[in-house]
Write a structure and sequence with these properties.
Elements (H helix, E strand, L loop, with lengths): L7 E11 L2 E11 L6 E11 L10 E11 L2 E10 L4
Parallel strand pairs: 3-5
Antiparallel strand pairs: 1-2, 1-4, 2-3, 4-5
């Protein structure tokens, strides 16, 4: 694996109650291994939000980074779409 190629995900902010941390829910659609039906799988990531700019409902892009805390290994790269107020 080459250096500098960081994983990135697009998801929705579901919590911003922590200081400089947001919880981002990333959904992906995959085929069930046995039956082939398309199902939605979701995973939550804790991401670093330095400016505390993210609100619940924002669509954001997160990128992988060095460990910032015990379970925070992602950071918010950009806000794609702001939530409607």
């Amino acid at each position: 694996m080459e250096r500098g190629n960081r994983k990135s995900r697009i998801g929705v902010v579901v919590s911003n109650k922590m200081t400089k941390t947001v919880v981002v829910k990333v959904e992906r659609r995959v085929a069930d291994p046995k039956y082939g039906k398309i199902v939605t799988k979701a995973e939550k990531y804790k991401a670093h939000d330095e400016n505390q700019a993210c609100q619940i409902g924002d669509r954001v892009r997160i990128v992988e980074t060095r460990p910032i805390s015990k379970d925070k290994r992602w950071r918010v790269a950009e806000t794609i779409e702001k939530a409607e107020a």
